[in-house]
Amino acid sequence: MKLTSVKQLLFTNWHSMRWIRLLIAIFFIQQAIYYQLATFAFIAAFFLFQVVFNTGCKTNSCQVDYPKKRQL
Known about the structure:
Blueprint: H1 3-11, H2 16-35, H3 38-53
Helix pairs in contact: 2-3
């Protein structure tokens, strides 16, 4: 993966759901540190993964692209 594509992935297409996921991740990071629970750390890691790679079904990133049928 090129550095420019990583920069483009991180710094473009920031919509409201991506910001909300970032806030949720920050909240769970804070809770994981305060309560010293690994469960909160895993939840935070899950949301951070979604933020960094811009994944999630609400943004149609988990949509399955079916091949187009060829006409005979």
